[in-house]
Design goal:
The complex is a heterodimer of chains A (226) and B (243).
Chain A lengths: L11 H9 L7 E4 L18 E4 L3 E2 L29 E2 L2 H9 L5 E4 L3 E3 L4 E2 L14 H7 L3 E4 L3 E2 L3 E2 L1 E2 L14 E3 L3 E6 L4 E7 L5 H5 L7 E8 L2
Parallel strand pairs in A: 1-2, 1-5, 5-8, 6-11, 8-12, 14-15
Antiparallel strand pairs in A: 2-3, 3-4, 6-7, 9-10, 12-13, 13-14
Chain B lengths: L9 H5 L7 E4 L10 H10 L4 E4 L6 H4 L14 H4 L3 E6 L12 H7 L4 E4 L2 H13 L3 E4 L13 E4 L2 E7 L3 E12 L4 E2 L8 H7 E12 L18 E4 L8
Parallel strand pairs in B: 1-2, 1-8, 2-3, 3-4, 8-10, 10-11
Antiparallel strand pairs in B: 5-7, 6-7, 8-9
Helix pairs in contact in B: 6-7
The chains are: A alpha/beta (226), B alpha/beta (243).
Chain lengths: 226, 243
């Protein structure tokens, strides 16, 4: 069943821009592929991040021009960053010491489903029967903060924010914040509650609630995503 | 008298690998750090019933992942296309659904391949453990997910962990920038990835390098893999266009 939206939804860049707003200067971050990787393009003024990619690089910045990349200088998305001062290379043991050891300040990940207790599913669509985990389980379970950046609904207004994930899990109770094309939602994992903090311009609490399986809690002042 | 680890050709380096072997393939996924010439030689050699252990294993051919635009990518899916491998242990065997079907997924759909998908941090630690004399370890990664099924769980300081076992192999095919004649290796950039750990975890470690130097040609401060771990060295031809 498709409902009529009250106003346009944010585009992918808009989701990334909002997710990027809460990233703090000096943090070591790992951005997943897709919308999360776009956060790097929308950092607030004065914020510099230390980017980690799990293939063994810390401190990368912009990508090389098309055709000029060095295969020995890759990020985890298979793209080729430029060599810049302050960069560090290391092997996969060290890279996952950094992740599993809880040294990543924040990871921004995409999701297929997020539950009211912050469970995350993002690696396999059940009907396909095969999927790719990569570093997602390590990042989701062990980063200090996990932000999900995704479209609020799947095709046909199907809810992705659900009571209980029925897709295979990536990690239990790991998500701190959900940023979508219509809402910003904080996850109170211990209480198993989702708090609607902001809505996209032209959207109301009720319009977002109608597209979310979980009963959302209100805050005193509902903000507008910017 | 120094042991001669140098092998003249890639085909000689893999000639004795028997069918049924488990083979680690280094790098991360993508061209950098991948032992591409050794892989091509193993395909030519024809050993069958192989178990491949890799990381981002078979997505470059259909997505271009980690390869320069002007080249046709080569990845570990080649051993499933050729029918040589019947199992893969890796973290990332398939690309997103919008891409063409990879060789690994094709083989899996046809019932020709078992695919064991392991979280990347668990995979590398299992390999490290195999080389380090540690039979098993506890990790927080994967608790509550399908990868936890059937595994021992234990709580430490209020958090639940999974028991994961060391993962050794018969052979490791790895890639480095330089070797000295003793077998000390130097890596470049992000080409380390799974190579150094795999070098320690196999019965026989075979390295593909761009350059061979005399002892002293690698700064001792820059040795990335110790000569003790390396059994065979093959040097690429100067100017090889394959990354």
């Amino acid at each position: 069943m498709t409902m009529t939206d009250p106003a346009p939804r944010l585009d992918r860049a808009g989701i990334a821009r909002r997710a990027a707003r809460d990233l703090q200067n000096g943090w070591t971050v790992n951005l997943g592929i897709g919308i999360p990787s776009m956060c790097a393009d929308y950092l607030p003024d004065g914020v510099e991040l230390r980017y980690h990619a799990e293939n063994g690089i810390l401190g990368f910045e912009e990508l090389s021009a098309p055709g000029e990349g060095d295969p020995n200088l890759m990020d985890a998305g298979g793209k080729f960053p430029k060599r810049v001062p302050g960069m560090a290379f290391f092997d996969s043991v060290e890279s996952f010491n950094l992740i599993r050891g809880g040294h990543i300040d924040v990871t921004v990940l995409g999701a297929l489903q997020v539950s009211r207790s912050g469970d995350l599913s993002n690696w396999m669509i059940p009907k396909r029967g095969i999927g790719s985990i990569g570093g997602a389980m390590d990042l989701a379970a062990n980063a200090k903060r996990v932000i999900v950046a995704m479209e609020h609904n799947a095709k046909g207004d199907v809810a992705k924010i659900v009571e209980k994930c029925d897709f295979p899990l990536t990690a239990l109770g790991c998500v701190d914040q959900i940023v979508t094309d219509i809402a910003v939602i904080d996850v109170d994992r211990s209480a198993g509650e989702l708090i609607l903090k902001e809505v996209a311009p032209g959207w109301s609490f009720d319009e977002v609630q109608a597209r979310t399986q979980v009963k959302l809690l209100a805050t005193d002042t509902l903000g507008e995503m910017a | 008298m120094p042991v001669n680890k140098l092998v003249n050709t890639f085909s000689d380096a893999v000639a004795d690998i028997p069918s049924g072997s488990s083979i680690m393939i280094g790098g991360f996924g993508g061209a950098g750090g991948q032992p591409t010439r050794l892989m091509l030689a193993l395909r030519e050699q024809g050993a069958k019933n192989l178990t491949i252990i890799g990381n981002v294993a078979g997505i470059s051919k259909t997505t271009g992942y980690g390869w320069p635009d002007h080249l046709d990518p080569i990845d570990q899916g080649m051993f499933f296309e050729s029918g040589q491998a019947d199992k893969i242990i890796c973290s990332f065997p398939v690309p997103g659904t919008t891409n063409p079907l990879s060789d690994i997924e094709q083989a899996w759909r046809e019932g020709r391949a078992e695919v064991d998908i392991v979280p990347q941090g668990t995979l590398i630690e299992r390999i490290r453990a195999a080389g380090a004399g540690i039979p098993a370890f506890f990790t927080p990664t994967g608790v509550g997910t399908p990868v936890a099924e059937g595994k021992e769980h234990r709580d430490f300081d209020g958090r639940t962990y999974l028991l994961e076992h060391a993962l050794p192999a018969d052979y490791a095919l790895i890639r480095a920038e330089k070797a000295d004649t003793r077998g000390n290796l130097q890596y470049i950039g992000t080409s380390r990835a799974f190579n150094p750990a795999m070098a320690t975890a196999a019965k026989v470690t075979i390295v593909e390098v761009d350059e061979l130097v005399e002892p002293g040609g690698i700064d001792p401060e820059r040795v990335g893999t110790l000569s003790t771990y390396v059994d065979r060295i093959v040097v690429r031809k100067p100017g090889d266009q394959l990354p």
